[in-house]
Design goal:
The chain is α/β, with parallel strands linked by helices. Helices cover about 50% and strands about 15% of the residues. It is built from 17 helices and eight strands. The protein has an eight-stranded parallel beta sheet with strand order 1-2-3-4-5-6-7-8. Strand 3, helix 8 and strand 4 form a beta-alpha-beta unit. It is globular, with a radius of gyration of 19 Å. The model has no long low-confidence stretch (mean pLDDT about 95). Bound molecules: adenine and zinc ion. Zinc ion binds next to strand 1.
Length: about 350
């Protein structure tokens, strides 16, 4: 398949995005506009200066800038504008379903009310459903560098809104903050009927992936790259049909891999793992979902069938009911046939 043919297929394949931090979709232009609107001082003189600062040597490097960036988000309208901008990008990439992460602790610790965050994001998601035909689920992440007690307090804040939040996740600094630290709060979330997922094996060792499965009892693994170091773990993930939400450009920009050709996507598919492609924090890592598909497809010479498998995995690994998944799978077959 030539690159233009492959790119055209990527563009027309319906996709779900399962690993997207909404705060990571804050483009420098909007960051500047919100800083001005809210009178927030930022240590950058121009959009170009902001982009130049987006050079990271590891996850923590990025997180320091990511938390600084989100400080311009103050009002319900800010969270609406942020989410709406992302949804328009997603629609342009033919994304039909999104499962969005948000980091309430990144906002409540700055004095922004939990409800301000939730209301703004949800209002945009509902507008996206009505106007862009993008369905959604919302996943609240706990920041793992903070305490278990803080995570419980965040879950308490979510209690009046459980009908609006579909799952919980675990993100932020992985090394030194193993899933075990959050076993009890995840157990409580599961009792409440919430879906659970966790970042594991991005920088952390395969043991963290084992803990996410055994102690948190996750329904997906976010990233999962380092699971490939442990053949028994690979066999387990494959036999359970566990979805891995891989983020190729994120991996490159955070030095999890050193060139895009090192992306584990092809190896994962060959090992029978249910890999998906996602953008993680597109404003910081240089690309939205189709950019991620194109980068790996070109570097790994992925076939049309492999690209369709990745798109199918994104729906079968989603929280959508089976009948809705089936509708999207049929649309993928049509896209593959060139219809
Ligand atoms: N928060 C936002 N993006 C993240 C990532 N890639 N890993 C961990 N925490 C994050
Ligand atoms: Zn992530």
């Amino acid at each position: 398949m030539t690159n233009p043919d492959r790119d055209a297929l990527i563009a027309r394949l319906p996709k779900a995005e399962l690993h997207l931090h909404i705060e990571g979709s804050l483009e420098p232009e909007l960051l500047f506009a919100l800083a001005e609107r809210n009178g927030v001082a930022i240590p950058f003189a121009s959009v170009e200066e902001v982009r130049a600062a987006y050079s990271f040597s590891n996850l923590q490097d990025f997180l320091d800038i990511y938390y600084q960036g989100m400080s311009v988000l103050r009002t319900e309208q800010d969270f609406f504008d942020l989410t709406w901008a992302y949804l328009q990008r997603a629609a342009a990439d033919n994304v039909r379903h999104v499962e969005i992460f948000f980091d309430p602790q990144g906002h409540t610790e700055r004095g922004v009310a939990f409800e301000t965050v939730l209301d703004g994001i949800e209002r945009a998601l509902k507008a996206g459903e009505a106007q862009l035909r993008i369905s959604y689920r919302l996943i609240m992440c706990f920041l793992r560098h903070l305490s278990e007690e803080d995570a419980f307090a965040t879950l308490d804040q979510a209690m009046p809104h459980l009908g609006r939040i579909h799952g919980v996740g675990l993100d932020s600094s992985e090394l030194g903050h193993p899933p075990a630290k959050f076993a009890r709060v995840f157990a409580r979330a599961r009792e409440l009927g919430l879906f659970v997922t966790a970042h594991a094996g991005e920088e952390g060792p395969p043991e963290y992936v084992h803990e996410a499965l055994d102690l948190l009892k996750v329904g997906r693994i976010d990233h999962g790259n380092r699971a490939l170091e442990d053949p028994a773990l690979v066999a387990l993930l494959a036999s359970e049909g566990m979805t891995l939400t891989v983020c190729p450009l994120s991996n490159l920009r955070l030095c999890v891999i050193h060139e895009i050709g090192e992306s584990p996507v092809r190896r994962m598919l060959d090992l029978g793992l249910k890999a998906t492609i996602n953008s993680d924090d597109p404003a910081y890592f240089g690309g939205y979902i189709n950019d991620n598909y194109r980068a790996v497809a070109s570097a790994l010479d992925l076939s049309g069938a492999e690209l369709a498998t990745l798109a199918r995995n994104s729906f079968t690994g989603s929280l959508l009911p089976t009948a809705e998944q089936a509708r999207h799978l049929a649309a993928i077959s049509e896209a593959l046939d060139g219809r």
